[in-house]
Amino acid sequence: MRFTKMQGLGNDYVYVDCFTEKLDDPRQLAIAISDRHFGVGSDGLILVMPSTEAADVRMRIFNADGSEAQMCGNGIRCVAKYAYDYGHTAANPMRVETAAGIKTIELQLGPDGKVVAATVDMGKPILEPEKIPVLIRQVRAVDVTIKTANRVFQMTCVSMGNPHAVFFVDDVASVPLAQLGPEIENHPVFPARVNAHFVQVHSPTEVTIRTWERGSGITLACGTGASAVCVAGVQTHRTARKILAHLPGGDLKLEWRASDEHVMMTGPATVVFTGDWP
Description:
The chain has helices spanning 26-34, 73-85, 177-185, 223-235; strands at 2-8, 11-17, 44-49, 57-63, 68-69, 94-98, 101-109, 115-121, 144-147, 152-159, 163-168, 195-203, 206-213, 217-219, 242-247, 250-256, 263-268, 270-276. It is an alpha+beta fold.
């Protein structure tokens, strides 16, 4: 099986072209191929597929633990790059089918005609607690209290097709993410588990984010998470609608547009290498 390793801000996945390859068990493949000691090493597996709807291409994403996710902001930029660079579609903007709906992506091309970056229309955030889902009684999950084993936090919850919990802190570098991440991901208030993001606000237009991804652990970047942070910052009056987000793997530009409530995300997409498995 031919594969391509790609990354967006260090959020790395193994991509398989299902226009030409056939997989019997993508969940088990995701576990094996994502292993950073005995496999290729990645945050998960992404399949590039023909669309079953009125889109140019389809993506399916499996976390490193084999669970299937609805959406990945960094991953979808790489899917668009793969589909364009390898000739599956010449559409620009491109429409990509995901489990969270069809997303529109505007491609930025380099001098060689290949995709170097992309702006993704992430759509409208989901703010109703029962749809995120998070088990609270408020109309919106904004600055609500959550207790872990040893701490009490205020969190704001947003779904960008997958669930996110955002925690604003004074010093993001001091957060024991490896300890708190699993506690929050599997907290009983989140019936579908959750992605956890700790955020330090530097100014109304600039933040730093550290992320624990559901099913993958600590990652260098999370596009849907950064989008959720942008929404949470506006909801809690901490940031403007347009921000620059610093993540361990690099920077993303986010805007929660007032005109249509869509979140726009801009960032790079890069091929690391190709190979054959096993």
